[in-house]
Structure formats: structure tokens, C-alpha cells
Predict the structure.
Amino acid sequence: MSKETGINGPTITVDHINSVIVDEQYHVFAGTTLTVCVLTLRNGFTVTGESACVDPANFDAEKGRHYAREQAFGKIWMLEGYLLRDQLHQSAATAPVPIEGKPGFMTYQGKPTTRDAYCVQPGDVIESAGEATYRTVIEGKAVEFKAYEQVNVGDYIVYLTDSDIYHCRADVFHERNIV
């Protein structure tokens, strides 16, 4: 539980909203009391807020900026709240599900991922380096990897970590990745 708010679950905070704002600009239209605030978010999206007063004699530029920013800030709060709620919904929707007829097995949703991989080229030399371990040279550097079937031109050598590099057939790699 948060000591400040008394809230148990995820929430949006003023600090969070301020952390996504990377720029703010203000404009007062000539001959009016209309003040517009444009807040730019870290992803490049912009949000606007505006303020105006009924009687130009009451116009205060500082207050105009304050109220315009406050309105734009509230819009960001709504957007960030929507994003958080969607993330919570996605997490719940992807919770593991038991598989009927396969006791103990669960269906898990995969995470979106990127892979670092090298496509085996004609002329690449693949040498055995032990049981299910092979070696090749990629851009002048020796690379050892695991392979449990023949490595062919067009197949991929997938790099996860320095100690987890493996062979993946071209058809399997293309099925699982955007190439």
C-alpha cells in the first residue's frame, strides 16, 4: 500500500505525468485572452490545453498559462490512465490457462520479442567443435553455436547471450519472425 495515497494497486502519479512531458510551449493569440499550452510527451505526441477570461481587464498571462497547462495535464492523466488500464487488462488476458486433457500443462502467451541473428551465407565455413557444437567466422570473429541438425545456407545463427547461440532452420525462423 502506498503511504501517500493509501492505494494498493497500480496508479498514475503527478511525478509520472511530469516524467512523460519533455517540452511545453505557450501562445496567447493577439487581441484575445486565449492562452494555449502545448505539452510534448516523450513519444512525440502533443496535448493541448487552453484558457481564456471573459473580461480582458481581468487577463493575467501567468494565470492563463497556469490554467491552460492544468487542462493539458488533465488530458495526459486520462491518456496515461487508459494506457495503464489497458496494460492491466492485457496482463489479465494473457494469464496462463490450464490445458484440458494435459494435467500440469498451461498455455502461456508469448512476449513480443526481437532476435539478433546471422543468416548463413554461401561460402561460410561451418566446422564441428564437439557434440552438437559448431563454429564459424562472422565478420572476422569466431562464433560457436549449438546445432542439432545440418546447417544450410539461408538458415540462421541466433544470438541470445554469449553462452546461448543456436542454429535455427530458415523455415522455422521465418515462421516465428518478421524477416
The mean pLDDT is 92. Residues 51 and 68 are 5 Å apart (CA to CA). The helical segments are 14-20, 61-93, 170-176.
